[in-house]
Amino acid sequence: MSPTVVIGFAAVSLAVIVMPGPSVLFTVSRAIAAGRRDALLTVLGNASGVFVQIVFIAFGLGVVVTGSDLAYVVLKMAGAAYLVWLGLDAIRHRHDAVRAVDAGALPPTTTPWRDGFVVGITNPKTIVFLAALLPQYVDPEAGLVAGQMIVLGALFCLIAIVSDGAWAVAAARARLWLASEPRRLMWTSVAGGLVMMALGLLLLLG
């Protein structure tokens, strides 16, 4: 791959990633509901899930999802259900934030990386988008097509980590300010949960 191709792919990826979409909203809602640590681990988990999708695409398994209505629907329903469950869980544990602030610490969740990974790997729109984008920047004559896709995919994930991580830090700072009023923090946990549930429903209906 030439530097021009890599730069072009990075520019397109950045333009897509920085636009506030489901990934950004998920990250912000997690930061508001659980804080910076959990949000950043969620970002890493989400990027890991997307990277697995890229490996699938590189070795031809992405065709199964992009070419099968059943596989697409099953993946979409699984991702939507998990997002709704995460939202309900955030709402169900909204009082934990108040108790933790009273005790002098903000409550972390137990599985932020896993949550992000599941959401990342079950997002069918991402795999369809990447399956269409990656081949455009691969040079078949250079050989190692799968390797080229994986390298470009890793670059895509790195850009996503930096961008989503910035959103996570910004949202977490707002949460720390909200922590000065514990009851207000409780309602931000509810808001974060509702956003996750809405994302799940939008994914299901989209």
Topology:
Layout: H1 3-18, H2 22-34, H3 36-58, H4 62-66, H5 69-92, H6 94-103, H7 112-121, H8 124-133, H9 145-178, H10 182-205
Helix pairs in contact: 1-9, 2-3, 2-9, 2-10, 3-7, 3-8, 3-9, 5-7, 5-10, 6-10
Oligomer description: single chain
Outline: globular
Integer average pLDDT: 79
Distance between the termini: 35 Å
Instruction: Please tell me how large the radius of gyration is.
Output: 18 Å
Please count the helical segments. Answer: 10
Helix content: over 70%
**Stretches with pLDDT under 50, minimum 5 residues:** none
- Approximately what portion of the residues adopt beta-strand conformation? under 5%
Number of E strands: 0
Describe the structure.
- The chain is mainly alpha-helical.
- Helices cover 82% and strands 0% of the residues.
- The chain has ten helices and no strands.
- Helix 5 packs antiparallel against helix 7.
- The chain is globular, with a radius of gyration of 18 Å.
- 40% of the residues are buried.
Task: Give keywords.
206 residues, mainly alpha, globular
Describe the structure concisely.
By secondary structure, this protein is mainly alpha-helical. The chain has helices at 3-18, 22-34, 36-58, 62-66, 69-92, 94-103, 112-121, 124-133, 145-178, 182-205.
